[in-house]
Structure formats: C-alpha cells, structure tokens
Design brief:
alpha/beta, ten-stranded mixed sheet, 11 helices, 20 strands, binds guanosine-5'-diphosphate, binds 6-O-phosphoryl inosine monophosphate, binds magnesium ion
C-alpha cells in the first residue's frame, strides 16, 4: 500500500476538512503531517458544523485511526479544548487518536514571540494566526524545541530552559507580555494529553502500509503558503507541499500514492501578501458573502478573487497532483460570467510561469467563462450538471492537465459529486 495525500493548492481553506471527512471511510488511518492550530478544518454533517485545528479530520469516523504526525506543532491547550468539544458531542477521541513522540510542542512563550514579532513588523506583518507556529518551527530547526516525547522525561527542566531563552529574545522587542497565567493551563493540558497514546508514528504508518491498510495524509494550509515555494515571506513555517508528507510522517517518496489537490472554484487568502487575482470591489464582497469567507481559526474576513490558473499549475507541478477536487462551485451560482487568470502581465509582457517575486506590477490576464446560473447545492450526479459547469470543468482539465475527480457543491458531507 501507498499513502494517498490530500492537500490545498491555493492559500489554504480550500475545504480540506470536508473532503477528508468524505473520503475517510475508505481509509484506516488519517494522518496530519504539518502545521498546527493555525489550521481550521470545517466538517458539516447531520446539521452539525465542527472546526478542527490540531486533530485530523477522520476523528468522527469510529473505525479510523487519527495520527498527529511528527511534522505537526501541537498546542496542548488548544488540543485539550478540541478534545472537550468532541467529548461534549459524545465522541471518545482516546479510542482513535494517537500522537507522534516527535511532534513539537507550542509553548505559551512561542505564542508571545509570534505576537511580538508581528507587532515589530508593523505594516509588513505576515498576518499570522498568532498561534506560535513560526517560533515553534524556529526552535525545531534551531534544535531547541520540546517534543511530545519529552513529556515522558524531564519536561519541567526543559520547559524552564526554553522559556528562559524566550525571555531573552523577548527583551529585544518593545513588547509588553505576561504569559505566566497561561502556563498553568498549559501544564494542566499536558496532564490531559498524557491520556492519549504517544507513538513512533513512522513505524506505525509503515507497518500499516505493509499490512495493506490504506492511509490518507491530510495537509494543512495550502501550497502557496509553503515555506519554500509559497509567496515568501508571507507564508507559514512548514512544507505544505506533498514532500512534507515524507518528512512529516516518515514515509519514503516511493510510498506516495494518489495526490489529491483541492482548489476552490475561485480563490481566497487570509493575512497579508500578494494575491494577483484579488477583487477589491463589490464582486469580491459578493463572493465573501455567498461563500461565507471568514477564517475558521481567527474569524478574519478572507480576501476573495478569481481562480488563478498560473498559480494552480505551479502548485500541481510541485505536488505531482494526480486528481483534482473542486470545492465551492455553488458559490458562483449567480454569476453571468466568471473569470480565470490564465497568464500574468508585467510591463506589457505576458508570461505563464509563476515568478520568483509577485510584485505590485504584476497583473492577471483573464479568460472569460460563462456562468451556469443554476442552484448546484442539490445536485448529486454529474448528469444533472448544467452545461456551463461541465464546460468550466473541461476548461480547467485542459489547462491543468489533471482530471477533476470530485466536485463539492456545499459544506455538507452529502454535497459531493464523484466524477
Ligand atoms: P480547510 O481549512 O481547507 O479545511 O477549509 P475551511 O474549513 O477553513 O474553509 C472551507 C469553508 O467552506 C468551510 O466553512 C466549509 O464548511 C465550507 N465548504 C467546504 N466545501 C464547500 C462547498 O463545496 N460549498 C460551500 N458553499 N461551502 C463549502
Ligand atoms: P488551513 O489548514 C488559511 C496564513 C495566515 C498568515 C500565514 C502565516 O485552515 O487551510 P501562521 O499562523 O502560520 O504564522 O500564518 O498563513 N494561514 C492560513 N491561511 N488557512 C490556513 O490553514 C492557514 N494557516 C495559516 O493567515 O497569512
Ligand atoms: Mg481552514
């Protein structure tokens, strides 16, 4: 068996949580391989709406084992809050959730450092979710981090040493802070985390593959937020691309199977940074309203724009996408015409390759597409598709050279069409 991977091709929030939930009955294991509580993955079923941050989106399926991989950064306080919410819904996550010993812990002082760094940047701030993601990955690569496995040995001393270091760093900023109150909650959360199995997830997953058990890796954020290939520095601090699965779970590149790339029928972004197809007008506002485009983690309004084929082609190349999933097609139901950026223009020169630097001089060049003017939300088969939706899908498949295998037409688990 190989690991199938599902990941975002845009700037996050493509609907990964929903699609993982839809696909999870076909898998024995769902594993998160990077990111942390900056993620907000929404699932809707039986009139319940649920947002997950640290926990993989297979948690509602009793027979699915959910793995928090080594590439993840885990905030114990947020994790425990998520657990409590699940318990209130009658779910017992201790039965099907395990955590890699090699996952790194987010400390209260990491969150403070995140806030201090953003504050010091002023107008050039990243627009971070302020969950401490950047500082925690910095400590990981700087070889100062604390891992879940450290909970089993000498945690207090390691915690104290790291916080001392953080206090020295914080003295470099003109930033008032007090994280002492949060420390109590952090240590209480550590006690609760201990009730979950800590595992060597790389062994667990490779053994599952050997035993022919299907595994699905769930990405967080999106390709355009990747630390290496995203719109740096306006990115997150992990590898969100398919390669992150290998380092974030301990699976070899030869063990990667299908790569499912998710994109919205349009495009959104939260936080700062370039966005060539952004609509700063009434149309953008209309999409935000129709698509309920507000952050699942921070509640911030998401920036909205047309689909960007140049960026999507780049994302497909980086990830080796084998199947496409298009979400939120229904959000465009009312448009007479929609648009897709099929090239970029700088100083009257047209180009098609995603560039090193997305500066303000870059303009999107659009192809006009006929709208379908049909309510898609109740459609459940391909045969019911309005002609112009089928034409849009055909156009995308021709441009992107990968088949669209799923079309999502609403937030609910049932609102999905397999092609
Ligand atoms: P994720 O981070 O990729 O899991 O995506 P989010 O949960 O942050 O954002 C996606 C939002 O769109 C959530 O509110 C979903 O419930 C919702 N959603 C997912 N698929 C669809 C769809 O096909 N149509 C509509 N209208 N909403 C969708
Ligand atoms: P999911 O998994 C959308 C964005 C933030 C900010 C930048 C860096 O729900 O798709 P960070 O907190 O990582 O330091 O923020 O990345 N960002 C996301 N945007 N969806 C996400 O996750 C995101 N996680 C981080 O808004 O611009
Ligand atoms: Mg999200």
């Amino acid at each position: 068996m190989k690991v199938d991977v599902i990941l975002g091709l845009q700037w996050g929030d493509e609907g990964k949580g929903k699609i993982v939930d839809v696909l999870s009955p076909a898998y024995d294991i769902i594993a998160r391989f990077q990111g942390g509580p900056n993620a907000g993955h929404t699932l809707e079923f039986n009139n319940i709406k649920h947002v997950l941050h640290n926990i993989p989106s297979g948690i509602f399926r009793k027979n699915t084992l959910n793995v928090v991989g080594n590439g993840v950064v885990l905030d114990p306080v947020i994790f425990v809050k998520e657990i409590q919410k699940l318990e209130e819904m009658g779910i017992d996550p201790t039965k099907n959730l395990v955590i890699s010993r090699k996952a790194h812990l987010i400390l209260p002082s990491h969150r403070t450092l995140d806030a201090a760094s953003e504050h010091s940047k002023g107008k050039t701030k990243i627009g971070s979710t302020l969950k401490g993601i950047g500082p925690t990955y910095m400590d990981k690569t700087g070889r100062n981090g604390i891992r879940v496995g450290d909970i089993e040995s000498n945690l207090d001393a390691k915690y104290k040493a790291l916080v001392e270091k953080h206090k020295k760093l914080l003295s470099l900023y003109d930033f008032k802070y007090n994280f002492e109150e949060e420390e109590k909650a952090w240590f209480e959360a550590i006690e609760k985390i201990k009730t979950f199995p800590f595992v060597d997830a790389e062994h667990l997953i490779n053994k599952a593959l050997k035993d022919n058990k299907p595994v699905l890796a769930e990405g967080a954020q999106g390709t355009m937020l990747d630390i290496d290939f995203g719109s740096y520095p306006y990115v997150t601090s992990s590898n969100t691309i398919c390669a992150g699965t290998c380092t974030g779970l301990g699976v070899a590149p030869s063990k990667i199977g299908e790569v499912l790339g998710i994109f919205k029928a349009y495009c959104t972004r939260v936080g700062s940074g370039p966005f060539p197809t952004e609509l700063l007008d009434d149309t953008g506002e209309f999409i935000r309203k129709e698509g309920n485009e507000f952050g699942a983690t921070t509640g911030r309004p998401r920036r909205c724009g047309w689909i960007d084929i140049v960026a999507l082609k780049y994302a497909i190349m980086l990830n080796g996408v084998t199947q496409l999933v298009m979400t939120k097609a229904d959000v465009l139901d009312k448009f007479d015409k929609i648009y897709a950026a099929t090239a970029y223009k700088r100083n009257n020169e047209i180009f098609y390759e995603f560039p090193y630097h997305l500066d303000d001089n870059i303009e999107a060049v659009y192809t006009e597409i006929k709208g379908w003017k049909t309510d898609l939300t109740k459609i459940r088969t391909k045969e019911e598709f309005p002609e112009n939706l089928s034409a849009y899908i055909k156009f995308l498949e021709k441009e992107l050279e990968v088949p669209v295998k799923f079309v999502s037409v609403g937030p609910d688990r049932e609102q999905i069409i397999r092609l």
